[in-house]
Every structure is written in structure tokens, then in C-alpha cells.
Amino acid sequence: MSRPGDLLPATGPTWRFFGTLLEILRYPPRVAGLATGGMMAKEFRGSYTVSVTPFTEDGSGIDFGALKNFLDWQLEVGVPGVIALGSTGEFLTVSDEERRQIVETYVNHIDGRMPVIIGTMNAHTPNAVRHSRQAEDLGADGVMIIPPYYYTPTDDEIFRYYEAIDAAISIPIMLYNNPVTSNVDMSAKLQAKLCLELESVQYVKESSLHLSRVPEVIEASGGRMKVYAGEWVVDSYLLGAIGYVNPFGNYMPRASGRIFELLEAGRIDDARAIWRPIDRIEHTIAEGHPTYGHQCYSKALAAAVGHPMGDVRAPLTTYAELGEEGRERMARLMPLVEEADSLAESFGL
Q1: pLDDT at residue 151, rounded to an integer
Q2: Which helix (H) or strand (E) holds 20?
Q3: Is 205 one of the annotated active-site residues of the chain?
Q4: Could you tell me which residues are beta bridge partners of residue 142?
């Protein structure tokens, strides 16, 4: 029996054309953002603010007025996208009903003006599936999902977790590799397997603290996985990252949210100039609390620049509870925020 290739010349433009066509059919490109079922999905690119969640003064509810004002600010300064209910958004502290209301507010208030990605992770697979399906049903453009945490699952268990979610939704999944918080470090090989075998897995937030992981994931996936940096935005971009998951956008969205415009314009030195004070902010916050300081200080800094977002929920330490230590650290942070914003303005952002 002849094979399709036997009917074609082994060399020449015709062979190259059909060979390329067969590769496309075998591995259809996802850069166009085609989701399962033929619906067009937005392609994610650039520095997305991973938002804090604004709680009421006593921490018992969500301040939706503050959230809408915050989203208006993000849109006004030109942030290309937002991510809700990530680690910075204290996703572990919100109830199911609060989650639904938060997702509805993001989607309805933004109303298609920029992509909305929702963190839908949960250590119990059916809950992660349920959260992900709900996010899609409510109109989210994508979901960001860390592997099952605490239990230190095997690669096979991680694959089955994402496989169940992939089977339930058609919007893009952004893997979230953060071994510091999840106790799981997904290798480049595992990330590539997830991308190549699961239709919805198209992006990864790479926060392993290994800069080399960026090109390793891209190479292992044959260029199909699109990497969002979790840190080291300039160097990650130069190694192939197409975006950045950005906690600094909670209080300086112009400088940190539009830095990718400089990178993609080839203005690497200007981007590095903005990144230097941002990097010092990162280290200053980490001195006080290396794992969860971003939630507390992001909210304190947002309030300081005119966008109050409440405080953190227990068991995290509130800014007021930090006392003199918090005030001293804020006195060091604010000049760095002002420096980054001033540089952004001088660079035309």
C-alpha cells in the first residue's frame, strides 16, 4: 500500500509545501489563539498586573468599589492585562461566593478592554476543575493554575490534574511554576509534555528562580509554550519570554506594566534602567518577608499612591501590625516607586 508521501517527489518545493502542511496539521499553531471549538481567544503578551484583592476594612468582605476604581486605573495607564486571584490576590482566603463575585466584577467591568486571567488553582482536582469552568462560563479569557500544592505530587499526578482541567475548558491555561509556594518544581520536560499533549496549556508563569528555565521550556516544547517571567523581566525577555506576571503593577502600573513596550522596541537599556529600582523594591520587601510580603506592601503602597485596597486577611500580618518596621520599610520603598515612575515618564510611557 502506498503512503501519501510516496505520491510526492522527495525533494523540491512541492515536497516542502506538503511536508510543512503535514506538520501544521499534526501540531496546529496556537499563536493565533485558537481555542477548542474554533472560538478565537485573545493572545496574551506583555506585563500583566497580578492584582491584590481589596478587602473591606474589617476584612470580612470584598470592596468592589475599590476594585472597580483599581481596574479603571490599570486601563487608564495602558496595562495590557490583569490576573486575579493569584498568590498576590490571596486566593486561598476567598470563599466560593466571593470568588464568583470577584470574577464577575473583573469580567463585566473590564468588558473586553484587556484580557482577564483568573487563578483557579486548588489542591483538590474537582475544585480546580469547578473553578476553571466557572471562570470560563463567566467570561474570563484564561486561567492561571499552580500544581496541586502541599502534597508534593508526582509528575503523573500533576499531568492528570491538568488533564482534567484541560478536558473541562477551552480557554488557555497558564501553568504557574512556583516551587517556593507550592513545594513543586515542574521541569522543562514536564511543562513541555503538558503543552504538547493538552490543548489548553499554552502559557507558563515561570517562577522557579532558575533563569535558564525560560529557554529550556521553549526548546523542550518546540517553541510552542509561551513563557511569562515570574522575575528578572529583562533577562527573561532576552531569553524568549513574551510577558511578565507583575506584582508591582498594583502601585506603579505605568512603569512596571509597560516595560515590555521598551523591550519590544529594542530599548533594552531603558528597560533595564526602569527595572533597577523595581528590583530594589523586590529585595526591600523580601528582607521583611521573603515569601508573602508582596500582599501586605502592595496594598500599603497602592494606598500611598491614591488607590487604597484594604489590608491582608489573617493569618498574614497587616501593615498596621508591622508597626515601626513597616513604616521604616515604606520610607525606603516610596522613593524607589517614584524613581521608576519618573523614568517611565521620561521614556515616554
Answers
A1: 87
A2: helix 12-26
A3: yes
A4: 117
Helix (H) or strand (E) holding 294: helix 293-304
Contacts of 108 (CB under 8 A, 6+ apart): 139
Q: Which CATH number fits domain 41-266: 3.40.50.2000, 2.60.120.10, 3.20.20.70, 3.30.1330.90?
A: 3.20.20.70
3: Cβ contacts below 8 Å, ≥ 6 apart: none
Average predicted confidence (pLDDT) for the chain = 89
* Residue of 329, 247, 309, 259 lying closest to 65 (CA atoms): 309
Separation between Cα atoms, residue 337 and residue 63, nearest integer Å: 25
User: Among all chains, which residue has been given the C-alpha cell 470584598?
Assistant: 62
Q: Is 297 a catalytic residue?
A: no
Name the residue among 72, 76, 84 with its Cα closest to residue 48: 84
Closest CA to 108 of 131, 139, 135, 134: 139
Q: Are 44 and 174 in contact (CB under 8 A)?
A: yes
Rounded to whole angstroms, the Cα distance separating 253 from 349 reads 11
Show the CA angle centred on residue 173, arms to residues 169 and 178, nearest 5°.
140
Q: Is the pLDDT of residue 19 over 50?
A: no
Of the listed ranges 24-33, 114-123, 222-231, the least confidently predicted one is 24-33
- Count CA atoms closer than 13 A to 241's CA, side-chain side: 26
Strand 226-229 and strand 201-206: the pairing is: parallel
In whole angstroms, what is the distance from residue 110 CA to residue 241 CA? 26
Catalytic residue of the set 162, 193, 205, 237:
205
Q: How many residues does the chain have?
A: 349
CA-nearest of 305, 206, 205 to 255 is 305
Across the chain, which distance is largest between two alpha carbons, in Å?
A: 81
Strand bridging mode 116-119 / 142-145: parallel
- CB contact at 8 A, 340 and 274: yes
Measured N-to-C along each axis, helices 213-220 and 188-197 cross at an angle, to the nearest 10 degrees, of 40
Q: Which residues pair with 62 in a beta bridge?
A: 55
Q: Which of 48, 106, 176, 228 is catalytic?
A: 176
Break the chain into its structural domains and give their ranges.
41-266
